[in-house]
Write a structure and sequence with these properties.
alpha/beta; 9-stranded mixed β-sheet; 18 helices; ATP-dep_AMP-bd_enzyme; about 500 residues; AMP-binding_CS; ligase; GMP Synthetase, Chain A, domain 3; 26 strands; ligase activity; Rossmann fold; AMP-dependent synthetase and ligase
C-alpha cells in the first residue's frame, strides 16, 4: 500500500484538478483527496490499534481507507452483510480499538467498539499532502465468512497489497484514460483494489454507485443498466449475479452495453456459459477471473482482447501456480501473511480448489474439493459448474446440487423472475426434463433426477446459505435428509426408469 499512497501524492501534484472519485453526492479532485487523507492521517496519529471501517461506499469511505493505511494502523473492513454475531467475533478477533462509521451504521458499530464519524469534509480538515510521502506500513485484515459462517481474518501487508494492485493494473492495461464504475461493496477486497487502489495508481477516475447492487437484489434489474448508461465507464468488476441482472435488463430494454467498455472482470463464482454468450452478444467484454482472499483476491484473469471463455485466463505475472493432486496451489508475493491470531504463513498456499491448465496455459477452475459429491454408484460429481449452467437459465435464480451418497444428484431450485408458475404447476417429470435440457456436456450420472423448490427467504431461514450467499453444503445435505427436505423432494419415476 505504500506505492498506492505515494501514487496519490504524485497525482495530487501532476493532476491537481483532475477528478479522482465521484459518488452519488459529490466529486473530489486528486488534490482535494490527498489533502483530506493527510488531514485524517494527522487525526489518526492520536491513537493506536486496528481500525474498523463500517459504512456505505462513497468518497468518505475512500478517504478513511487511504488514511488508515497511510497512518500505519491496521485497517479492518466490516462487511455490512455479516450478522451481528459475526461482527462481534471480528471486533474481538481483530482487537479493534476504533470503528469509523457513517450515521446509518453508528448504532450497530457502537455495540462493537468505540466509534468515530467517518472522515467527511465537515469532520476532518485538510493538511499538506507532503504528509503522505512517508506513509506507514499499512496492513489489512480481510474477514471472509466462507461457507461455515465463522469469519476468518486474512492478514495482508504492503508486500501483498502493492504487488496485487500493480499486477491487476498491468493485467487489464489500466491507464489514466480509464473510467471505473464501482457497484460492489468496498469491504470486498477485489472491489477495494479495483475501485480505489488501481485508479489511484494510474490516475484514472472511479465513479461509485452504491445503491445498484441492492436495487438489483430487490428486483430492479434496470438499476445496473442505467448506471452503466449514465457513467459510460471503460472498466468495471461484477459478480455473476450482477452480470446476469445486467444481461437481463439489456435484453428487456432491447439495448446494448455502452461502447466505452473495454473490460468487465467477473469473479467470485462460476459464470453460467449462457450468460457469457448473451453478454458477448450485447457488447459486454467479460473477463473471467479466479482468486481468493488468502492470495490477494486475484490469481488469474483473462486479458482484454484475449479472453478464453470458460477459463480464468492466465496467471498474474510474478505468481507461480501448480496443480498438485488436482488442487490449485499458489506461491508468490500475494500469498497472505497468515490468519489473524494465528502463526505467520510461509511458502505456497493450497487453495482447496480443483483445477487444471488448458493447452494455451489458461487456468480452468473445477470447483471446491470439499464440495465434491460421491453418488451411491461411486461417481464423483463436482456440483459448481452444473449449478452455474442451471443458473444460466432465466427461470432459475439459484441452483444448488446435493445428494452425497444418493444414486443421483438432487437439485435445490430457487425460481427466478421468468419462471412464472412452472415449478409450482408442472409435473415432476417435466421439471426434471427441463433441468436436464439446460445441462450440456454433463454425463448422465451427474444429471439430477430429483429436486426440491424453495424461495430465497426459505434458503436463509433453513440456514442453507452463509451470510454472503454461498451454499452451506453440509447443512444442505442434513436438511435434504430431514423431514422438511424429504417432504419437499420430488422425483419422476418415469425419468428414473429411463436411466435404469
Amino acid at each position: 500500500m505504500a506505492e498506492v499512497i505515494a501514487a496519490l501524492a504524485r497525482a495530487a501534484e501532476k493532476w491537481p484538478d483532475r477528478i479522482a472519485f465521484s459518488d452519488d453526492e459529490t466529486s473530489c479532485s486528486f488534490r482535494e483527496l490527498a489533502a483530506r487523507v493527510a488531514g485524517a492521517v494527522e487525526r489518526l496519529a492520536e491513537g493506536a490499534g486496528p481500525v474498523g471501517l463500517m459504512a456505505a461506499n462513497g468518497i468518505d469511505w475512500v478517504v478513511a481507507d487511504l488514511a488508515v493505511t497511510a497512518s500505519g494502523r491496521c485497517l479492518v473492513p466490516l462487511p455490512p452483510f455479516f450478522s451481528d454475531d459475526q461482527l462481534a467475533h471480528v471486533a474481538g478477533d481483530a482487537e479493534l480499538s476504533l470503528i469509523l462509521c457513517d450515521e446509518d451504521n453508528r448504532a450497530r458499530a457502537a455495540r462493537l467498539a468505540p466509534v468515530e464519524t467517518l472522515f467527511g469534509p465537515d469532520v476532518v480538515g485538510q493538511a499538506d499532502a507532503a504528509l503522505l510521502r512517508a506513509p506507514g506500513s499499512g496492513q489489512r485484515i480481510i474477514y471472509t465468512s466462507g461457507s461455515t459462517g465463522r469469519p476468518k481474518g486474512v492478514r495482508l501487508g504492503d508486500r501483498q497489497l502493492d504487488y496485487i494492485s500493480a499486477a491487476l493494473a498491468r493485467a487489464i492495461s489500466a491507464t489514466s484514460a480509464d473510467s471505473y464504475l464501482s457497484v460492489l461493496p468496498f469491504p470486498l477486497l477485489l472491489e477495494e483494489l479495483c475501485g480505489i487502489h488501481v485508479p489511484i495508481l494510474v490516475g484514472g477516475l472511479s465513479t461509485v454507485r452504491r445503491h445498484v447492487a441492492g436495487a438489483c437484489a430487490g428486483g430492479d434489474l434496470d438499476a445496473i443498466r442505467l448506471a452503466f448508461e449514465e457513467v459510460r465507464p471503460s472498466v468495471s468488476v461484477l459478480v455473476p449475479e450482477l452480470l446476469r441482472a445486467w444481461v437481463g435488463a439489456l435484453l428487456l430494454a432491447d439495448a446494448q452495453a455502452p461502447s466505452s467498455l473495454r473490460a468487465v472482470a467477473v469473479g467470485g463464482a462460476p459464470v453460467p456459459p449462457q450468460v457469457l454468450q448473451a453478454a458477448a452478444s450485447l457488447g459486454i467484454p467479460c473477463l473471467e477471473g479466479y482468486g481468493l482472499s488468502e492470495c490477494g483476491s486475484v490469481v488469474a484473469v483473462n486479458r482484454p482482447g484475449a479472453a478464453a471463455a470458460g477459463t480464468a485466463g492466465k496467471v498474474l505475472d510474478g505468481l507461480t501456480v501448480t496443480i498438485e493432486e488436482g488442487e490449485i496451489t499458489v506461491s508468490g508475493p500475494s500469498v497472505m501473511s497468515g490468519y489473524a491470531g494465528g502463526p505467520d504463513h510461509q511458502g505456497a498456499w493450497r487453495t482447496g480448489d480443483l483445477g487444471r491448465f488448458d493447452a494455451a496455459g489458461n487456468l480452468i477452475v473445477e470447483g471446491r474439493k470439499d464440495a465434491m459429491l460421491v453418488t451411491a454408484y461411486g461417481r464423483n460429481v463436482q456440483p459448481e459448474w452444473i449449478e452455474a449452467q442451471l443458473q444460466g437459465d432465466p427461470r432459475i435464480l439459484r441452483a444448488v446440487l446435493c445428494g452425497h451418497g444418493a444414486p443421483y444428484p438432487i437439485a435445490l431450485i430457487v425460481p427466478g423472475a421468468f419462471a412464472g408458475d412452472f415449478f409450482q404447476t408442472a409435473e415432476p417429470a417435466a421439471i426434471i426434463e427441463a433441468l436436464q435440457g439446460i445441462l450440456t456436456g454433463i454425463p448422465d450420472y451427474a444429471l439430477p433426477r430429483s429436486f426440491a423448490v424453495l424461495t430465497g427467504d426459505e434458503m436463509q431461514t433453513f440456514g442453507l446459505l452463509s451470510p454472503n450467499g454461498r451454499p452451506r453444503r453440509k447443512e444442505i445435505e442434513t436438511w435434504i435428509k430431514g423431514p422438511e427436505g424429504r417432504a419437499r423432494l420430488k422425483t419422476a419415476t418415469r425419468m428414473e426408469e429411463k436411466f435404469a
